[in-house]
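A reminder before we start the practical. When you read a complex entry, don't treat the lines as separate problems. The point of joint prediction is that each chain is placed relative to the others, so the output describes one connected object in space. Small molecules and nucleic acid strands, if listed, are placed in the same frame. In the example below there are two entries. Take a minute to note the order of the lines before looking further.
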Amino acid sequence: MRSALRVIGAVCVKDLRIALTERVFLVIGVIIPVNFLFLFSLFALTGGEAPIAVVMQGQGPLARQFVSSLEHAHSFQVHVMSTSDAERQLQAGRIVGVLTVPAGFDDDLRAGRRIELAVEVNNLQVDFTNDIRRAVPLAITSFYAQAFPDQVVVQAREVDVQAGDTGYIPYLAVSIVVAGMFIEGLLQSVVLTAREYEESTIKELELSPASRWAVALGKVAAGLVLTAAAAAIVTAVVVFVVGVHPVHPLEVLLYGVLMMVPAVALGVLVGTLLKRRQAAIPLALGSFLPLFFLSGPFGPPNWGGTAAISLVSPLTYAIALFQHAFHGYLTAQTPLAVDVAVLVGFAVAAVVAATTVLRRGMMA
Amino acid sequence: MSEPAIELVEMTKRFRNFTAVDRLSLTVQRGEVFGLLGPNGSGKTTTVNVISGLSRPTSGTVRVLGRDMLTEPRSVRRLLGTIPQETALYEELSAEANLRFHGDLFDVPRSRLSSRIDELLRLVQLEDRRRDRVSTYSGGMKRRLALARALLHDPELLYLDEPTLGVDVQSRRAIWDHVLDLRTRGKTVLITTNYLEEASALGDRLAIIDRGRLVALDSPQELKSRYGDTVLDLVLELAPSPALLVRLRSIDGVTAVNTADGTLKVNLTGDPEATGRVVTAVTGEAKLLRINQHEPDLDEVFLQLTGRELRD
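Here is the predicted structure of the whole assembly.
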């Protein structure tokens, strides 16, 4: 036992020393996770609300109230401008649509005359186009209910499940912390393990009497330390830059470790099986990305058949746990205890698989 | 009487349909320097991989220092020091860090580890470079460091795979001296090498393996004397015809005829008339440019036994 602990410590320290001398570890450790965070945030920022121009030919109070309804529809970035500016912006692709409030809007409305709102849409990108198609009628209804409450007798009464609304970016940022931890753990240990085969230093381990389990656990320990350091950086960016503060900080620590162990162990497994960084890194990234998207980074995973895949992804449970740790709410159908148990199961299975494969790989 | 250092009995290793080692039996006694020779693909590396526990034999028995490699691999590894051909050093770490890591893997007592590292770095003359990254070392320095690492846990059996491959003459001499010193200290040394000069200089006994089988096993002197008293090197203007080779082989006193590097090599017994008969036969068919007569060296023994040069 004592010698096994010594081996675990020695392998861990050796791997950390090597990691500190190699640029690739810095890239994996800091640049990739932080880049992920900014990439997804930009994606959310640019894709969340469609930029539209509103041309106000009618300037009355009801027309202004209508524009206010558009602004509060959570679907548009409204820019009021002239007809010529709007056309220019539309042609330049800076806005997705132009909505024109006609002259005499207030008078026609009061007189009960039919009003046609011209909506010119650049239907190049169907996601934004559909946003406009859905949101304009909703904004009209919302405006009508506010302007003429006695005429609109059917109203939606919203009952919130969660205590407060969570913005798209704060929700996504938490998912990205999980993604950062997972990809970091996976890649760090893939590199640490595959390089042993590439540099032939695996022979030093193979020819030693050290327990193969201890060697594998040492590698997992080194991967955990490196991943924890990178995870701290990404978490700090989320907390101090994005401004998402964890409601349960201790849960972040606990779930973070639970998340990192299977990621790191899987990295040891992939590195041992492929034995080449050039093959292992793209495979790790290539399998991680679709899994991440299927595991509910933007909301609970419930997309028909893909929900079944999400059930076997550790990311699903980790994202659910992290959303609770940061925002305090439950996003999954399973209780937190079950999520924790599943992650523990993934961690144990991954460590056992990694050590078994490493053990077999060291004796042909 | 103590058990042999290495004992292979009918050891076979197959990879699917390919038999790398075929019923190999050999014994290496404790305290001897034993050379294992063979061209590429002869089964030499597979044999040492089995001996060092990196590979399991398909059948047969492998005992190292009295222990069964299959059932007690960890205890065997503890007694085995290895210098792999590629050295397997962590190039980003210093010499000292490499040795300390090795000490941890082999559970060298912490109280002794530092003094042992000092002692071995002194032995291989790397004391002043102990804190430098191994990546800054020359090939010879890396070999010496690998030797120090292999000796760190005081193994009973040392295996050196091509110990002087790619090193300068000075480092080669230093490594040879270390190996000879190990023999005087009673260590068993197993060497695989492509340099027959090295095998001859260091090995108490040599085993020649070809196509997975043992083709000769003896001391270098015995091998030389057994496979011919004299060798004639004949340089011809044109390559010898197959008919000439057949004719030469039929001459009394000729034990072997081979060609190597454009030279016709004819091994002769002690018959003093044989040289004249060979020269007559050759000049009758080809223009002889040069002739040289000498004692056989291991290269020629190897060529005669395997039909190939060692570095084919």
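Discuss with your neighbour: The mean pLDDT of chain B is 87. What might explain this?
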